[in-house]
Each structure stands twice: as C-alpha cells, then as structure tokens.
Amino acid sequence: MQSTQRDTVWILGGTGVVGQNLLRLLRAQELDRVMTVSRRPLLDGTAHLARNLADSRSDFPCTRGDIVVNLTEQTSAELVRTVLQRGACFIENSASSDYMMTIREMARSVRGPGFLVDGCGVAPGLTNLLAYQVLQIHPNTRALEIVVDLGLGKHAGKAALTWFIRSLARPYTAKVERAWQVLSPADTEIRVQWRQGEQLSLALGFPFAEQQILAEELGPACDTVQCFLSMRPGWVTQLFKRLLGLGAGHETGTMTLSCGDQSEATAAVLARTLLAARQFSGVGPICPLPELLSLEQAFEAIHKVHHDASFRHTSPTILA
Questions:
Q1: d(Cα 55, Cα 151) in Å, to the nearest integer?
Q2: Segment 166-215, tens digit of pLDDT
Q3: Which helix H or strand E contains 36, and what residues bound it?
Q4: pTM here?
Q5: Quick one: which of 31, 75, 189, 316 has the fewest CB in 10 Å?
C-alpha cells in the first residue's frame, strides 16, 4: 500500500492515554490527516468523530490507503471487517488473546484488500520482535519465555490495569512442549533478574496475546511459547502468588529491554509501525510485525521519547 496525500490515519480509542501520546507523535511527524474516534468528545481542536465503537452498526468513512490504529477492545469485529473490505490497513494493539484471535480470524475470512498488522506496541510488539531476535541469534532455541515487568499506576492506563488484574484469574491457552495446553497463573511461574545485582523477581503465567501469535507464526520452529507477568513493587506479585497458592520456578538466559513509561513507549512503536505500513506493498490478510519493523527500529523509536531506554542480552544460563 503506497502513501498518498489523501491518506487518513484513524485512531480508534484516541482519547485515552496511549491515543493522546500517539496523536502528539503523529502531529510532530506532520502526517497528512489524523482523526480520533471514540464515544468521548475532544475539545482541543483535534479532528474527531464521536462513535460508539462497540456498536456493530457503527461506522466511519475510511477508504483504501487509510491506516486505522485500534486502541480499544470495544471495537466490534464487524467494524474490523468493514475496514479491511475497504482496503485500509488495520493496526491492532490488543494484548488479549481472545480478542486478538477473533480479529485474526476475521482478517482471514475477509482476505483483503486491506490487511491486519497485530501485536503492535510494547507487549505485544517489542516482545514479538525480541522473540524473533532470540531465534535469529540462537536458532536452536526450543522454548521462549516472555516476561513483562509492569509498573502499577498511570503508565498502563486505568482500563489496561483493570484488565491485567482480572486476567490473573482467567485460564488461557499456550503452546508447551509442542502441545496446546489450557493454563492459569496457578500452573506456572518463573523468577527473573532484571538488572545485575538485583534479587530475583517473581513472574506469574499470564494470557498475553503474543504467546498465541508467536506460536502460530513460528510453528514447529519453537516447541514452547509462554508469557509471564511481573509487577512492581514486587510485593504485589507476591500477594497474587499467595492468593493463587503457587510454588517456585526458574529462569533461563535473557534479552531485556527497558522502555520507561509504557503508554509513551507503546505510542512510539505504533507511530513507527504506522510509517512502515504506509510503504508496505505485500499481500495480506495478516502482516506479522517483524515484516514491517525490526527490533532496532522499534528501540530507536522508543529511545527518542525515553533517552534512558536500554537493551541487554545475557548468555543462556540456568538459575536455581
């Protein structure tokens, strides 16, 4: 899909924390036209449409060549179908496996002319790119363990934080030792060392979407893909461990990327993905994020908004 001066970027759920950060970045890049869409009004002069995105009858006038960035799971699958049928690119940010797989199935059933780019942001997003980097450097890797360290508070936004907490009590599906298994946070945990000299931190199994996306994309190249969640301060994770009645775990060698404020980092990755999607000329219905963006490009985008962002790669070791 080639960019034209008439292309419009639509931000669904654009009145939230991530949406406003993304809007600020896109304005700085002087893109042709940016429109926010949500049920809440904007009074700051931003081009905006008031729509209830959860309503299957809801619509907005996107056309072929436009890019739609979805930041809310309220967006109905029927609306996604309409966007893809019109030939627009649909960029999805959701971390929910159920919602993301529903959107993937919708994209496959429509079969263009638009295309879906999913797993865009920090988790999923950076985590997917890190996984591909691991397999590129260590091609004999058979198990991927993805751990996200979440700071509680404004960085994730109220809706995201609520989803994180509720998801700790829900079963989810993951590929473990070549078999799809139904797991819950009570089934597994690991301990990770985020920085040299720090004590090991507890991380609980968690239903992030990338463990299904990556298992699907990588196929037989990887036997196990599991996601874990660690929360700061550490006592919060320990509290959930006691509530769930868990045991102990382990850690392997790591790639660690520290990206600062989650909402700003997510917006930075989305903005960089959006620019790449405008030049994408491949064939859908689904474009994996690594086909558009490298880990280096994503890290560069984050570093522009967080100068203290860092990347660390340690050789594989077994920790007791």
A1: 33
A2: 787 788 889 999 999 999 877 788 888 777 777 888 888 888 888 989 99
A3: strand 34-38
A4: 0.82
A5: 316
